[in-house]
Amino acid sequence: MSTDFDSLIAEARGCTLCASQLPLAPKPIFQLHPAARILIAGQAPGIKAHTSGIPFDDASGQRLRNWLGLSTDRFYDPSLTAILPMEMCYPGRGHTGDLSPRPECAEQWRKALLKQLPNIKLTLVIGRYAQVWHLPGSRKLSLTDTVKLWRNYWPDTLPLPHPSPRNNRWLKQNPWFEQEILPVLRAEISSIARR
Ligand code: SF4
Hints:
Protein name: Uracil-DNA glycosylase superfamily
Oligomer: single chain
Pfam family, one: UDG
CATH class: Alpha Beta
Helix content: 40-55%
Bound molecules: iron/sulfur cluster
InterPro entries: HI_0220.2, Uracil-DNA_glycosylase-like, Uracil-DNA_glycosylase-like_sf
Order of helices and strands: HEHHHEHEHHEHH
Structural class: alpha/beta
Radius of gyration: 16 Å
């Protein structure tokens, strides 16, 4: 692993760029390793992840691991799975849930950190904010329509809804997602994990 990688990671971990806008002290949460083959491009850490320092350390993470068919060990194996949210620090709560990711975080860090992942075979793009950034063509589409068009991005990219329990209603209203997409996704993850 290069020194450049180590210094970039150390710099990102020590970032305080938008400290004055955050509800708690900055604590960037991500998982990166140059050997990673799967990238989880998420939204922002929740309060549980902020507290533990572990990404997706909550009910959303349990559901996401189930969607992927990955054990906890494999999910947190940085040489397999990279996890990089659009905002790396906990954004705080709004009226209807956690606040949206702050744009300055992706502006400051995202391209440089993604460059450290030359071996990614599949990028899972979770939620609207990550989809607009990673799939600019989806900007005018709803999340549902973007996910319905998943074959347009497959097999190197897959748009997903957020696995939060707050999306239980969406999952109930869109049973095609679990029936049609998850078996294909699990097969691909299993194949990548064996390589
Ligand atoms: S949210 Fe991003 S830009 Fe803001 S302090 Fe945390 S790491 Fe830095």
